[in-house]
Amino acid sequence: MPKPERRTIWMSLAAFCLLISAAAPQRLNAQGGADSFNGERAFADLKHIVDYGPRPAGSPALAEERRWIEAQLKETGAQVEEDAFTASTPAGDLPMTNILAKFPGTQSKIVMVTGHYDTKRFSDFRFVGANDGGSSAALLLELARELKGRKHALTYWLVFFDGEEAVRTEWEGDDNTYGSRHMVEKLTSDGMLGRIDAMILVDMIGDSHLLVKRDTNSTQWLVDAVFNAAHRIGYKNYFPDEAAGVVDDHIPFVNAGVPSVDIICFDPNDGYWHTAKDTLSHCSPESLTITGNVVLATLADLDIAPHGR
Ligand SMILES: [Zn+2]
Q1: Ligand 1 centroid vs 264 CA: distance in angstroms?
Q2: Residue-wise pLDDT tens digits, 167-204
Q3: Average pLDDT over every residue of 265-282
Q4: CB-side exposure of 50: number of CA atoms within 13 Å?
Q5: Is residue 160 within a helix (H) or strand (E), and if so which, with residue range?
Q6: pTM beyond cutoff 0.70
Q7: Which of 247, 225, 120 lies closest to 180 in space, CA to CA?
Q8: Which helix or strand (DSSP H or E) is residue 157 part of?
Q9: Residue 149 CA, ligand 1 centroid: distance in Å
Q10: Centroid of ligand 1 to alpha carbon of 233 (angstroms)
Q11: pLDDT tens digits for 202-256?
Q12: What was the pLDDT predicted at 5?
């Protein structure tokens, strides 16, 4: 879950989403040809992930999901690593683990594509987080398959963050973004932070009524890069030039000076977010395809014309 800024005025997204969903997505890639991101396969992964049930940080179910994701990632030939740490939370110390899949390029500069794979803990109902937690993990996993065997200059790291969700009900203080904050600390202490040219975050992008706005808390040149890519390949209806402010796993990176962008479809009033209704039935392969193609197109653009910093 991310958090909207108080100053953000949320429009009637539901009505707008219904309107735009009538338009068939154009299936194009960065070169204007047929799309390559396999949203159907990502959706099958999403179903598998949801079948683990609720997956809060520190739970056996999340550990099972992690083992399965890592096994799948290893099949792509990626270099798979774990970043395990202990997080101090309002519920006491919890073991957490970020997952990294590395795809070396010809350059040492790194673009990270990230998302969270934990789900929010609820004791009063069963929360499986198909969109919130599941969709980002499924997209990253399929992205790993798409990157397999590709030639690229920049080095890609796919990062599955643990502990994005608040342990308590409310998103307050440091009770959230445990994995991303730890990753920034680790990269800083390893002297690696300066090699991260860009960080692309995906979150809640499986929603069958996909609508991604320009996040005002992200790095604006990178927001431009994402939206330019989305518009070029025919997805302007899903990536309109409308602003929203979201607090999410990109903020620790923004604060550390790493250009970062949050690609998120977030409406806290849609009736699904953090409810028992966040199930597969309101997610779609098409939304995963659209977002996956936008990420691939953005990566292709950055590879051709790295922004640097
Ligand atoms: Zn959430």
Answers
A1: 12
A2: 998 888 999 999 999 999 999 999 999 999 999 999 99
A3: 96
A4: 25
A5: strand 155-161
A6: yes
A7: 247
A8: strand 155-161
A9: 33
A10: 29
A11: 999 999 999 999 999 999 999 999 999 999 999 999 999 999 999 999 999 999 9
A12: 54
As given in the structure block, the two tokens for residue 16 are 């707008």
pLDDT in the model for residue 200 = 98
Strand partners, 283: 207
To the nearest 10 degrees (0 to 180), the angle between helices 285-304 and 220-232 is 120
Considering the four listed CATH numbers 3.40.630.10, 1.20.58.100, 3.40.50.620, 3.30.360.10, the one that applies to the domain covering 31-302 is 3.40.630.10
Element (H, E) at 114: strand 110-116
What one-character-per-residue DSSP string does 240-304 give? -S-EE-EESTTHHHHHTT--EEEEE---TTSS-TTSTT-SGGGB-HHHHHHHHHHHHHHHHHHHH
Distance 308 CA to ligand 1 centre (A): 32
Neighbouring CB atoms inside 10 A of 17's CB total 18
pLDDT at 15: 39
Q: How far is CA 103 from CA 78, 111, 199, 248, 294, in A?
A: 6, 10, 15, 25, 19
Rounded to the nearest whole angstrom, what is the distance from the C-alpha of residue 126 to the centroid of ligand 1?
14
Give the number of C-alpha atoms closer than 13 A to the C-alpha of residue 167, restricted to the C-beta side: 20
Distance 274 CA to ligand 1 centre (A): 6
pLDDT-derived band at 149 (thresholds 50, 70, 90) equals confident
State in Å: Cα 118 to ligand 1 middle: 9
Beta-carbon count within 10 A of 19 CB: 11
Domain layout of the chain by residue ranges: 31-302
196 close to 305: Cβ distance less than 8 angstroms: no
Mean pLDDT of 61-68: 98
